[in-house]
Amino acid sequence: MAFFQDLGKKISNVAQDASKKTGDMIEIGKLNAAISSDKKAIEDLYHKIGAAVYHLHTAGENLPDALTADLQAVTGKQADIAALEQKIADIKVEEEKAKEAESASAAQPSPAAAEAEPAPAPAASAAAAETPAAPEASQTVHYCTGCGAVLEPGMRFCGSCGQKV
């Protein structure tokens, strides 16, 4: 009988140890989550401090020389971004002009094709005159703000990058 009592005590001790270790692991997990949250808050504060210092720089305030090179680098990068965005806009304008020129040339038959085709009957020309213009020519072209891809009418998400439009 003593054997079973010893066995029962050992099982009870193991269960208590397992319970304590589980509790410790849960507590460590909570503490790690709190540490991660505080680290994220610090990163956000660093970002706010940096933005405030940069605004002081752009306002002409005197700042320590150690910051001057980095602040000027930010200004340079902003100018680079503006130049790249302008290039994207120029490319889009050129694409639009090329599409308009292509659709205009497709709408007019070539002189050789006009000579080869017989003149349409008056009834056929009246029906052609009543046909509305192609919808592509009257619609404006929209572009994705994320990647610059051309968006089809009615699209809610970009087919290239998946961004909501």
How would you sum up this structure, described in words?
With 165 residues, the protein is mainly α. It contains 5 helices and 2 strands. It has a two-stranded antiparallel ribbon. Strand 1 (142-143) and strand 2 form a beta hairpin. The chain starts with a helix and ends in a 14-residue tail after the last strand. The model is unreliable at 122-137 (pLDDT under 50).
Task: Describe the secondary structure blueprint for this structure.
Blueprint: H1 2-58, H2 65-107, H3 111-116, H4 122-130, H5 135-138, E1 142-143, E2 150-151
Antiparallel strand pairs: 1-2
Give keywords.
165 residues, mainly alpha, 72% helix
The gist of it:
By secondary structure, the chain is mainly alpha-helical. It has helices at residues 2-58, 65-107, 111-116, 122-130, 135-138, and strands spanning 142-143, 150-151.
- Across the major sheet, the strand order is 1-2
Structural class: mainly alpha
- Poorly predicted segments: 122-137
- Rounded to the nearest angstrom, the distance between the terminal CA atoms is 77 Å
Average pLDDT reading: 82
Note the total helix count: 5
* β-strand number: 2
Describe the main β-sheet briefly: 2 strands, antiparallel
Task: Identify the overall geometry.
Answer: elongated
Strand content: under 5%
Radius of gyration: 36 Å
Secondary-structure element order, N to C: HHHHHEE
In helices, the fraction of residues equals: over 70%
